[in-house]
Amino acid sequence: MKKYQLFICVMLSFWALCTTTVCAQNGDQILDGIGETGLIARYVFDGDAKDWSRNNLHGKIQDVKARFVNDEQFGTVLSLPADSKAFVSIPGEGLIGEESLSITGWIYLRSAQRGQRFFDFGKNSKSHLFFAPVGTENEEGIQTEITIEAGRKYKTRSSALEAGKWNHVAVVINIPSKSISTYVNGLLVSETKNVELELAQLFDTNSGEKNMLYIGKSLIAENPYLNAKLHDFRIYRIPLSDKQIARIYNNSLKGDQEEEEAEEQAADLPLFPKTNPQLYNEYLTSVSDVKVETVVGSLPRLPSYVKGVYRNGIEGPEVRVIWPSPKDNSQVLKSGQYIVTGSVSGTDLKPNATVIVKGAKETASPIRKLEVFKLDQVSLNADLDGNHTKFIENRDKFLTTLSTTDPDSFLYMFRNAFGQEQPKEAEPLGVWDTQETKLRGHATGHYLTAIAQAYASTGYDKSLQANFSDKMDYMVNTLYQLSQLSGKPKEIGGKFVSDPTVVPAGPGKSGYDSDLSEEGIRTDYWNWGKGFISAYPPDQFIMLEKGATYGGQKTQIWAPYYTLHKILAGLMDVYEVSGNKKALETAKGMGDWVYARMKKVPTETLISMWNRYIAGEFGGMNEAMARLYRITNDNRYLEVAQLFDNIKVFYGDAQHSHGLAKNVDTFRGLHANQHIPQIMGALEMYRDSDTPDYYHIADNFWYKTVNDYMYSIGGVAGARNPANAECFISQPATIYENGFSSGGQNETCATYNMLKLTGDLFLYDQRAELMDYYERGLYNHILASVAEDSPANTYHVPLRPGSVKQFGNAHMTGFTCCNGTAIESNTKFQNSIYFKSADNNALYVNLYVPSTLKWTEKNVIIEQATDFPNEDYTRLTINGSGKFDINVRVPHWATKGFFVTINGKQEKVKAQPGSYLTLSRKWKDGDTIELRMPFQFHLEPVMDQQNIASLFYGPILLAAQESEPRKEWRKVTFDVKDISKSIKGDPKKLQFSIDGVVFKPFYETYGRHSVYLDVTLK
User: pTM of the entire structure?
Assistant: First the structure.
């Protein structure tokens, strides 16, 4: 058959960064220039009804007369014959919680009989969406019709679809634009506007079982079944544009292609003249020039914000400057000086930076000055009013549900891989842990970490703690037993392969493949090499070395080392909280397996592997191996950790010419969460190897990411260019031009990893900006990612006008990557509230959260009592005595002052916003420290479109509560000298109103919302 050549974004190869060419690739990830995050399901019908997307919404062919036939145009296609009642049913959960919808597919009608349905989706015959290709019983011609209860109907009409030929059909339900559009063969044939509709009226939002999604059958029993051939049926969660639909149609006809021009980005956000002054910049008269120094080889770190002068006595904020972002370090290869000219959005101001390049010299590398407290040393408390905080609420949702989970579900695919019998009544997980999913086992690693953290955190409830202890032991014992089977004879005297480097192909197979089906999976564990443990056989690891790419075919893979990192990290987490030696032995065994294979892989192959989109995603394998080295003191693990260096991102090339080590942005356009854990691993490598480059890689990455790629909630990905919501934008500091993906953005697990990186960096360098970011991401993304009444949580967080969060995995039965990190995030909230100096002579108070710290090394207990963030006050009470420093964070937003009272006496302090204030004395039992940091409203604009801004009250992002979908940004007007004049409300409840619209914290927002506003200052 003819196979489509699928297209991936420019980040697939380092050397293609920021070009306009999209490289061809046999993968499922970017289909016709549309990121896979926009795809709900895809059915090619080339031999089965499986979902080609990663969502596992496999269809079911009903009636044995349906068959696959050869076709001249598309090879193998599905035939629904006239003399049958054949159709395809799709799992109903696929359309739960979606806002808009696009459906496309190829159909070859054999009959012009009216009443046939190409598809019919809905919860019943009174609330459904259907496409009739030649008309209904009463009307002739194409009918796209939506019927909702109460008798309302919306439809589009056009000439009947021609029988006896292939036609491509597309239907777009664009809720924000209030339109229904129908396309035939890439062209718009009819459109209906002013459609007052929400998809929740068509589909049950609580249970997928109540939704009926049929291809080839009507929801009305008396209508005829479809008599046609079908090919490549797709469902998208985004409203496709005219160009996207034309592209899908044209690419289908072209067949195999080597290269395509990148799709022009749809201008589906409001456009603003670039020369129009925006926000405070309208009053800006001048911007200061700056002078910076650097050393030969390293690009300078230019300040993102510089001082500006405003007219009319206005005290505006520091001015955001957008500087050019070189792709190499050619400007700084010798001593001297040069000028860099920046720009200020909406103005013609061009500030200059004079860069002085000095001869390279050895600089002192930072040392790890701080250490973390163990989870059992810090506990979360109720607030001053005795109410549970959001932290406790979310924690308890997760702990309660985790305690009811069945470990056998998380072990199911491991036993399956090893061909072992399942315990009675064991059920597998769903979503990314199903039988044929190449990432299966990833949730098990998250689960190990989560139950380890839960065990460490639940000393207040011995029964609950015992529950998690039992789960840990059971999980580890089973994984250990399975790992002991690998590379050992099944029977005494039987053949086996203990050497990980000579693993043969599976029995009866001529080569390696990723077939995990019940019929195709290999279970010959005696041939897998000693120590191997995974939820799938070794083939994916070997295929990666041989050049395999990401995708759904048997010749393709899905991030094998990513999954392995989760498992290894989970095993080590269990070991470190419980001392379970089998957990460590299992991790060591797999570490030995990885070492044996990796040390034989050439550098050129490693560079290729780690720069393959998603296939080469290795999570934090470098971090895990370095950590295993630190636990065991076995140098082999440190050696293999270095083999996970992403050389092109870290160093630019094999010669280490530039890259992040030299402050060059080498990650623009790349998949965000594929690379953030790699950076965390670099910092871990610095801890264990004292190689300064590793620290510079981590620090430079953090600074660039937070300043050039961050959305207001703290998330860092969501590109329209490249066309993938999980990618960094193609050009730094252009979120408006290239970001705000229509498929959602700000992957929650990416923020989880950014917070982890941030906390780790702070242990080396106590810059307050690090914990300012931590506070932002924690409150405004992680807390905001959890559903109101369950531990269901977000994958991507949409930030366009009038968006709605989608929550999933309420019962912990089917995990995406973000569902996995959610069970980690919500079982360790206390881990970064406090840090201590390595010598135990100083305490850092980073977050203002009601909590109790047991500083056992000092024999001191410190209790923090507060209503923060519902109040701008916190009190620290010291139980015990001793001389030590207490360093309290003065947040960057505390511009109205920071006031300190000790034992009732006001202290004279100079507290600079965005710093730490040191309180040093010999503390006595019962001493109290009271801190007050008055909140005020402030705006956080998009760097390249300043009038699009988010509204904050202190650290808390306020979201407009919307009553209906929106296409345009919500417009608000504020007084330029005091934006609070337009805002009414109750600060204690953190609920406000502007022009009659309610604003409340994003973490308390569960319905339709607007996080960004179109702001005018007067």
Answer: 0.94
CA 353 from chain center: how many Å?
A: 35
User: Looking up tokens 């031009």, which residue turns up?
Assistant: 737
- pLDDT for the residue 267: 59
Report the distance separating Cα 498 and Cα 587, nearest Å: 17
For tokens 């040191």, the residue is: 918
Token pair listed for 784: 């905001």
Cα 683 from chain centroid (whole Å): 21
Task: Give the pair of three-digit tokens for residue 584.
Answer: 């460590």
Q: Give the pLDDT confidence score for residue 37 in this predicted structure.
A: 86
Neighbours of 460 (CB within 10 A): 10
User: How high is the pLDDT of residue 17?
Assistant: 31
SS3 labels along 128-157: EEEEECCECCCCECEEEEEEECCCEEEEEE
The CA distances from residue 534 to 412, 504, 824, in Å, are 11, 17, 20
Residue found under tokens 């979902």: 51
In this prediction, residues 397-421 reach a mean pLDDT of 98
* Backbone angle region of 72, left / alpha / beta, with phi > 0 → left and psi within -120 to 50 → alpha: alpha
Distance of alpha carbon 730 from alpha carbon 736, whole angstroms: 12
Res 2 pLDDT > 80: no
Say how far apart CA 103 and CA 390 lie, in whole Å.
Answer: 39
Q: What is the CA 117 to chain-centroid distance, rounded?
A: 37
Helix (H) or strand (E) holding 109: strand 101-109
Question: What's the CA gap between 437 and 27, in Å, rounded?
Answer: 15
Distances (CA, A) of 346 to 431, 655, 801: 45, 41, 22
* Residue 187 to residue 190: CA distance in whole angstroms: 9
In 842-890 the beta strands, taken as DSSP E runs, fall at 842-845, 851-855, 860-866, 873-879, 882-890
Token pair, residue 539, equals 């083939």
Structure tokens at 227: 């008599």
pLDDT at 669 over 90: yes
CB 391 within 8 A of CB 380: yes
The H-or-E segment that residue 75 falls in is strand 75-80
CB 527 within 8 A of CB 405: no
Q: 95-117, pLDDT tens digit by residue?
A: 988 889 999 999 999 999 999 99
Q: Where are the beta strands (DSSP E) in 909-1010?
A: 915-923, 928-932, 937-942, 945-953, 956-961, 970-974, 984-986, 991-994, 997-1001, 1009-1010
Residue 885's pLDDT band, with cuts at 50, 70 and 90, is very high
Average pLDDT, the chain: 93
Count other C-beta atoms under 10 Å from residue 656's C-beta: 15
Task: Return the pLDDT at 308.
Answer: 96
Residue ranges of alpha helices (H) inside 490-552 are: 539-545
User: How far is the C-alpha of 402 from the C-alpha of 446, rounded, in Å?
Assistant: 12
What is the SS3 assignment for 685? Answer: helix
How many DSSP H helices and E strands does the chain contain?
A: 18, 50
Write down the residue that tokens 């068509």 correspond to.
202
DSSP 8-state secondary structure symbol assigned to residue 226: P
**CA 44 – CA 431 distance, rounded (Å):** 20
Q: Could you read off the pLDDT of 510-563 as tens digits, one per residue?
A: 999 999 999 999 999 999 999 999 999 999 999 999 999 998 889 999 999 999
Q: How far is CA 216 from CA 82, 105, 253, in A?
A: 11, 12, 23
Q: Which helix H or strand E contains 473, and what residues bound it?
A: helix 462-483
Strands 119-124 and 127-132 turn out to be: antiparallel
For the chain, the straight-line distance linking the first and the last C-alpha, in angstroms and rounded, comes to 64
Assign 383 to helix, strand or coil.
coil
Instruction: Give the pairing type, strands 970-974 and 1013-1017.
Output: parallel
Residue 506 · residue 514 · CB < 8 Å:
no
Do 320 and 302 form a contact (C-beta atoms < 8 A)? no
